[in-house]
Amino acid sequence: MDNANILLMLKANLEMATTSHDVYLAQLLEVAFKAIQEEGIKIEKIASEVADYEIEDIQDVNLMVMYAAYLYRKRADEGSPQMPRMLRYALNNRLFSQKMKESTDAS
């Protein structure tokens, strides 16, 4: 999935119909990508002739969208600084899944 479609998914998640926040949302997606990588999860961006990049795994795309939506909502609601459990579980499950796959591939 290319970056334009990932942005559309984020806008749908946030129920936005206009393009007025697209630059900010694209930056949030990049921040989410880097934050997910800092968690130890490997997401591969593939160079694309159509867009800046593509991400093949839909689970990775979903994680980026959920994380970016969390960052957007967190900005508006300083009263709840904790990451939503749903997102924490998704990150943990993805990390554990990748680690298990690495350990079985090494065997």
| Largest β sheet strand count, sense and barrel closure | 2 strands, antiparallel
Q: Assign an overall shape.
A: flat
Rg over alpha carbons = 15 Å
Q: How much beta, percentage-wise?
A: under 5%
Distance between the termini: 32 Å
Summarize model confidence as the mean pLDDT.
Answer: 89
- Lateral arrangement of strands in the main beta sheet: 1-2
| Structural domains: how many | 1
By helix and strand content, what is the structural category?
Answer: mainly alpha
Tell me the total number of β-strands. 2
**Which residues form runs of ≥5 with pLDDT under 50?**
none
Q: Specify the oligomeric state.
A: single chain
What pattern of helices and strands is seen along the backbone?
HHEEHH
Helix content: 55-70%
Q: What is the count of DSSP helices, taking H or I runs of 4+ residues?
A: 4
Describe the protein.
- The chain has a two-stranded antiparallel ribbon with strand order 1-2.
- It contains four helices and two strands.
- It has one domain.
- α1 (3-13) packs across α3 (58-76) and α2 crosses α3 (58-76).
- It is 64% helix and 4% strand.
- The chain has 107 residues and is mainly alpha-helical.
- A hairpin with a 5-residue loop joins β1 (46-47) and β2.
- The termini are far apart.
Précis, in short:
This protein is mostly helical.
Name the descriptors:
2 strands; 4% strand; 107 residues; 4 helices; mainly alpha
Helices, strands, pairings?
Elements lengths: L2 H11 L8 H17 L7 E2 L5 E2 L3 H19 L8 H22 L1
Antiparallel strand pairs: 1-2
Helix pairs in contact: 1-2, 1-3, 2-3, 3-4
